[in-house]
Design a protein that fits this description.
Layout lengths: L9 H52 L3 E6 L2 E9 L5 E8 L5 E5 L11 E4 L8 E7 L2 E7 L6 E8 L1
Antiparallel strand pairs: 1-2, 1-5, 2-3, 4-6, 6-7, 7-8
C-alpha cells in the first residue's frame, strides 16, 4: 500500500492563479480611476489655495488684489502700478502645458471681459466661474462673491 501525500495538484494551482489574475484585472481600472480622481482634486485644491491667498492678501493688506490670467499661468497682482505701468506681482500659479484654467465672469458688463478676478479690501470679490481641464479630467466651480469659497458645478474624471 502506497502512502498518499497531501499536496496541491497542478490544476488547483493554475485555477488559483487564474482567479487571482482576474481579480487583479478587475482592480486595476478602479485604482487608476482613484488616482485620476486624486489628481483632479489636487488641481482644485491648488487653485483654491491660490485664490484663498489672494483673498487673505486683500483683507490683511487692505489693498485690491487681482488674479490675472496670462500666457505663463495666473499672476496674483496688486491693483497699484509701478513706474512702468506694471502691477506688482505677489505670487504666481504656474500652469503646466496640459492643464487649462479658464475664467468666466458672469457679472461683467462687457461681452468679452479681460481675464482678471478682483478681490476687494472689504473681503468681497467678483463672482466668477473657474473651469479646469487637464489630463485627469475637468471641473467647474462657482466662487461666491461674499466668501470667495467655491461650489462645484461639475466634476468629471477622464
Amino acid at each position: 500500500m502506497t502512502a498518499r501525500r497531501a499536496a496541491f495538484t497542478l490544476l488547483e494551482i493554475c485555477l488559483v492563479l487564474m482567479i487571482g489574475m482576474i481579480l487583479l484585472l478587475l482592480a486595476i481600472p478602479s485604482v487608476a480611476g482613484m488616482l485620476a480622481d486624486q489628481r483632479l482634486h489636487e488641481s482644485y485644491a491648488r487653485f483654491e489655495k491660490f485664490a484663498g491667498e489672494a483673498h487673505l492678501h486683500s483683507l490683511r493688506d487692505q489693498k485690491q488684489i487681482i488674479l490675472v490670467w496670462d500666457k505663463h499661468g495666473i499672476a496674483m497682482c496688486t491693483a497699484t502700478r509701478d513706474l512702468h505701468g506694471e502691477p506688482e506681482v505677489l505670487d504666481r500659479l504656474e500652469v503646466p502645458e496640459k492643464e487649462v484654467f479658464e475664467l468666466s465672469r458672469p457679472a461683467a458688463l462687457s461681452p468679452k471681459p479681460v481675464a482678471e478676478w478682483v478681490f476687494w479690501p472689504n473681503g468681497t470679490c467678483e463672482p466668477v466661474i473657474i473651469s479646469y481641464k487637464g489630463p485627469a479630467g475637468l471641473w467647474q466651480v462657482k466662487f461666491d462673491a461674499l466668501t470667495a469659497h467655491g461650489t462645484f458645478l461639475k466634476s468629471e474624471v477622464l
